[in-house]
Design brief:
heterodimer, A: about 325 residues, mainly alpha, two-stranded antiparallel sheet, about 5% strand, B: about 180 residues, alpha+beta, Nuclear Transport Factor 2, Chain: A, Archaeosine Trna-guanine Transglycosylase, Chain: A, domain 4, 2 domains, six-stranded mixed β-sheet, five-stranded antiparallel β-sheet, 7 helices, elongated, Ribosomal_synth_fac_NIP7 (chain B), Nip7_N_euk (chain B), RNA-binding (chain B), RNA binding (chain B), nucleus (chain B)
Chain lengths: ~325, ~180
């Protein structure tokens, strides 16, 4: 009797093992193609055509089974990859994915070329080609190579020009320095206007407007760099919530309405919730303090030593006093 | 008037924590009612919910002060504790300094506390720790920052500063116009 029962137990155990193995083995005619860098599995097996025709719960069940089988195969492939423990022993097991091979198609249509600017049209018409200029120019006065423009340029600092000749045919009473300044201002304004016009033309033509470049170009202003840094911080999967902050960056998380208007909690909102939030904040602040404060520990030690020294001195004095009195 | 944002709450609690440590919980979570902090014109006020409901119906331009003013935020968003918070700091103070009767008046005029005027000081006070200053009769006079730790206080000469003055009750008379 006992032998039969043992056989029964063994048979039951084997049945269970087979069941478990059935759930993790998948039979396919054609092998799947895997691109583990993209976590992609391509199944070229023709599906059971009869079951997939027409909507219904049977179709759902078939599709679900198909998805489960393919996912099983993909996960089995992932487990084959070389893995290591991230963050030392006890950390999560991390697989090293290979480089992706499948080229993903474009999400948006490619950008159209921007329309030529007014100067570009004119230059094309006249056949003017771009000349590459040297960055340094020989300055005869200083007898050395100086920049073409900018700091210590050839030809001296225009702000310190102390002489402005009155051109022929000009009004002798006119202030030449003021005229030069005004003309420079007008030139700058005209340039800026033309740049904006070109941008507007490109925008109207539907092409992508050249936006603030997100990679460092070398001539970006402080505000542009700040904007770029903010965009970089938010371009993570969790929208920048867990990015470490730079030492001098403010600790305010960017509010959803991070534009012109600040939004605050309602004045008489849920006071109990406010209180619990403040208590949690206190708990967070309290937990960050280091448990062992070095200076206080050192001071405590010094205090103990001083107390011992004082006690010893007191004993010595009393002993000396007693000896002296004994005559 | 509006509630404090998280950064502002953190700044206020850090400042308060320097004087009363973890006893801030007793200010936030009181058994005898719900009390809260509100910001009005860069000043932080501490008031009960009952008072808040009443104050909410006063127009912003006409509202001068509400509850107890704990301090204000400066233009560069730093929090500065004012003497009007003394009533709430004194009972929960962790580190206390008692001042001799002779130099009480000097402290109340806004001067720092010298070693010669120091009566008692709490044991194991660290340097630059926030302290509350009392007279010998245990009346809170103001608060300040310990310039020397208790250890060093014993060794310095009598003319050295031991407590930097930050606020005292004499300001109620001196700065009568600007206190809210």
């Amino acid at each position: 009797m006992a032998a039969v029962r043992v056989e029964e137990v063994l048979a039951a155990a084997e049945e269970q093992e087979a069941e478990k193995r059935r759930s993790i083995t998948v039979e396919k005619e054609l092998e799947l193609e895997f691109d583990l860098g993209n976590l992609l599995a391509l199944d070229r097996n023709p599906p059971a055509a009869a079951g997939l025709r027409g909507a219904g719960p049977r179709r759902e069940a078939l599709l679900r089974a198909l998805a489960r089988d393919n996912t099983q195969l993909l996960v089995a492939q992932l487990w084959e990859l070389p893995a290591e423990r991230a963050g030392g022993a006890g950390g999560p097991l991390v697989a090293q994915l290979p480089e992706p091979t499948f080229r993903l198609p474009r999400e948006k249509p490619p950008p159209r070329p921007r329309p030529p600017t007014r100067w570009e049209q004119f230059a094309r018409l006249k056949g003017i080609r771009k000349r590459k200029r040297t960055s340094l120019v020989w300055d005869e006065q200083a007898k050395e190579w100086r920049r073409r423009w900018g700091y210590q340029r050839a030809g001296g600092d225009p702000a310190r020009a102390w002489l402005a000749e009155v051109p022929e045919g000009a009004d002798p009473e006119e202030d030449q320095f003021a005229r030069l300044r005004r003309e420079k201002r007008e030139r700058v304004a005209r340039n800026e206007l033309n740049r904006l016009r070109n941008l507007a033309r490109a925008h109207r033509a539907g092409t992508t407007v050249p936006a603030v470049p997100l990679h460092p170009t070398g001539h970006q202003s402080r505000e542009e760099l700040g904007h770029v840094a903010r965009v970089a911080r938010v371009s993570t999967a969790s929208l920048g919530r867990f990015q470490p902050r730079l030492p001098k960056e403010s600790a305010e998380p960017p509010s959803r309405s991070s534009g012109k208007k600040r939004r605050f909690e309602p004045l008489l909102g849920n006071l109990a919730a406010e209180r619990s939030r403040q208590l949690e904040l206190l708990r967070d602040m309290g937990s960050k303090k280091p448990v062992l404060d070095i200076t206080r520990a050192v001071n405590k030690q010094l205090r103990q030593e001083e107390a011992e020294a004082a006690a010893a001195k007191g004993k010595k004095q009393s002993r000396r006093g007693k000896r002296g009195r004994r005559q | 008037m509006r509630p404090l944002t998280e950064a502002e709450t953190r700044a206020v609690f850090e400042k308060l924590g320097r004087y009363i440590g973890e006893n801030i919980q007793l200010l936030v979570d009181r058994p005898d009612g719900t009390y809260c902090f509100r910001l009005h014109r860069d000043r932080v006020y501490y008031l009960s919910e009952k008072l808040l409901k009443v104050a909410a119906s006063i127009p912003r331009e006409s509202l001068v002060s509400l509850g107890t003013c704990f301090g204000k935020f400066t233009k560069s968003q730093k929090f500065r504790l004012s003497v009007t918070a003394l009533d709430f700091l004194a009972p929960y103070a962790k580190y206390k300094v008692w001042v001799k009767p002779g130099s009480e008046q000097s402290f109340l005029y806004g001067n720092h506390v010298l070693k010669s005027g120091l009566g008692r000081i709490t044991e194991n006070t660290a340097q630059y720790q926030g302290v509350v200053v009392y007279s010998m009769a245990d009346i809170p006079l103001g608060f300040g920052v310990a310039a020397k730790s208790t250890q060093e206080c014993r060794k310095v000469d009598p003319m050295a500063i031991v407590v930097f003055h930050q606020a005292d009750v004499g300001e109620y008379v001196r700065n009568e116009d600007t206190l809210t």
